[in-house]
Amino acid sequence: MSNHPVQVIAITGGKGGVGKSNVSINLGMCLSEIGRRVVLLDADLGLGNLDILLGISSRENLSHVLKGECGIKDILVEGPGGIKIVPASSGTQELVSMGPREHAGLIHAFSELSDDVDVLLIDTAAGISEMVMSFVTAAQESLFVVTNEPTSITDAYAMMKILNQKHGIYRFNVVANMVRTQQEGREIYNKLTKVTDRFLDVALQFSGCIPFDDYLRKAVMRQKPVVEAYPRSKAALAFRSLANKVDSWPLPTTPRGHLEFFVDRLVQGAVAR
């Protein structure tokens, strides 16, 4: 086992369309700016879109690793700001329905990266599928992206309930996305905690909020992270604040902090299901 600690963070939320991928990309780039070696995994194994959002392409992707045609280092794509991207295979149904053996083979490949990464960000798919749950339960931390929509709050709560009651996870980090004011962001968090405090034995941590910013939309159209395209925009400043918050999270010093532990935990979860 490698002695190099790796912080594994799943960026999730349940509902689609809340901006998980944009949060993943911009958070990763901001962490890279402050000296962390970042690998970003597109864990939407059926409809991956990080490569599209960033305007990058790769001849190989996770499907080639699954088939044993190459290693995980062979498919890494250089992203903006020095981050590395592990591209998914968009539209490949076999990846969505892969069994425990394939799942295990895919994740074991990540042990190759252990000494070359400080932070592994996992951009999960929408929903509460077994695949999504496998990634979130295996990660050390989860960052829930929530917007001011009843369905977003409801879906985030539903996902937390399953993670808490079925998998024993009790700590969740929350970022409010696409808010008009700081107060709105705090109100979204309060709405969620009001429900979780009543029905679940969990602890929520408010990690901040990302404002609704037209510059973010413009950056998406340019296929660039907003922190690169418009570094002084409100959204870019908010992402840097979020990165500083994430960077302050304690790094485990036990085997829980090693990438191999994440690998083993994920495989065990896949097999159990």
TrEMBL record:
GO MF entries: ATP binding; ATP hydrolysis activity
GO CC terms: cytoplasmic side of plasma membrane; cytosol
Keyword entries, A-Z: ATP-binding, Nucleotide-binding
InterPro entries recorded: FlhG (IPR033875), MinD_FleN (IPR025501), P-loop_NTPase (IPR027417), ParA/MinD_ATPase (IPR050625), YlxH/NBP35 (IPR033756)
GO biological process: negative regulation of cell division
Pfam family, one: ParA
Name recorded for this polypeptide: Cobyrinic acid a,c-diamide synthase
Species the sequence originates in: Ketobacter alkanivorans
